[in-house]
Each structure stands twice: as C-alpha cells, then as structure tokens.
Amino acid sequence: MGDWPAADDITIAIALDSWRPTPGTRETVRRNAGRHLVFTDNALIPPKWPALNGSWRFPPPLGVQETTELSTADQVTVSRHLQVPEIRVQMNRAPLRDLSDPTTPPPTPADSDGRSAQTFLVDVVVRRAGERRRATASGRDIYAVTAPLAVEAMARILDGRLHRPPGAAAPGDLFDAPDFLRSPSPAHLTFTEAAG
Q1: Domain spans, the chain
Q2: Residue 89 and residue 75 in contact, taking contact as beta carbons nearer than 8 Å
C-alpha cells in the first residue's frame, strides 16, 4: 500500500506449478477442514460455499490461470495491520488438485540445497479509488523459503530492526515489508513492486 493509509480491497493470488505436500501439510488440511474464515466487509466470517472460481492473470511465465477462492492465514494477519474492508485470496487449481489427491507424493530434492523443483508466485494487487498497486514474490519450493524468512525475522528482532506496536503484532506491523522481502533475494525469493 506504500503511502496509502487505507485501500478498497486487496487480492492475494497464489500460483504453484505443482504441490507435493509434506505429511505436515496433509495433517494441517485434515485438522483445519471446515474451520476457515475470510475477511469481508471489515470482518472475519465463515466463507460461503461453494468456493468461487475464476481466473487470474499472473506475471510471466504463468499467465492466465484458473483459480479458486480460499481462506488463508493472510486474511487474518493482513487485516490486523492494514485498513482495508475486503481481502480475497485465490489459488490456481492445479496445486489444489495435487493436494486433494492422496496419491500425490511428498516433495523430493532437485538441487544440491535440497529444494524441490516446484516454483511458486504470490501476486498481490491493492486497489484504491481506481488506482492499482501490485507486488509479486516468486521462488522455488514453498517449504524451503520458510526457513530463510524465519531466520531473517529473528535476526531483525535480535538486532532491533523492528517496529514495536503494543500487544500482539502481525509480521507487517513489525518489519518494513519491502525491505524484509528483498532480504532473501535472489537465492530464495524474488520481489518486485509496480503501479497498475
């Protein structure tokens, strides 16, 4: 959102070229079934079913993908620190089919760092009064990018590079988001911002 104090809505579009889930992911899906919330009209509410299907034009090389709306933790954390009444999340359908197929194998290493060959892209569009801003993060292996982000967060906490709001805080409250997302680049994550 940059210098915008508020926005009309945020769409978080996630694309994976495939999803080979870990046993932990499968267990999380099983335990969380039916316990999801979405952020709409300034409130976290149970989603309407069936989920809305649509499409999203991702940056190259993915292009237009068929998507399904879903709920994620992003709707909780983003609504905690940004003033926006609507936060929608959608994911391309191919990885969701992989996730729902019990025969899909777990991830396997494809390089010397142990990362899988999976690629991912998170494309976020913020709208306000007819203007649009876009930020995109992409990389390989959604599981392997978690550790560098966690280590970066811990390093910033320990060396004092964080904002300290009172009470519980979302990551966006604690860190300068663009600077934080550029820190693991380019080995683990590529981050870009654009208007329009």
Answers
A1: 9-141+189-195
A2: yes
> Which of 53, 58, 85 lies closest to 69 in space, CA to CA?
53
Class of domain 9-141+189-195: alpha beta
Structure tokens at 16: 């994976």
Measured CA to CA in angstroms, residue 42 lies from 9, 72, 166 at distances of 10, 16, 22
Per-residue pLDDT of 143-176, as tens digits, reads 998 888 888 888 988 888 877 766 777 777 788 8
Residues 6+ apart with CB under 8 A from 54: 66, 67, 69, 90
Residue 104 pLDDT > 80, yes or no? yes
End-to-end CA distance of the chain: 12
How far is it between the farthest Cα atoms of the chain? 47
Q: Residue 136 contacts by C-beta under 8 Å, 6 or more apart in sequence?
A: 59, 121, 122, 123, 124, 191, 192, 193, 194
Q: Work out the pLDDT band at 141, boundaries 50, 70, 90.
A: very high
The span from the CA of 25 to the CA of 16, in Å, is 15
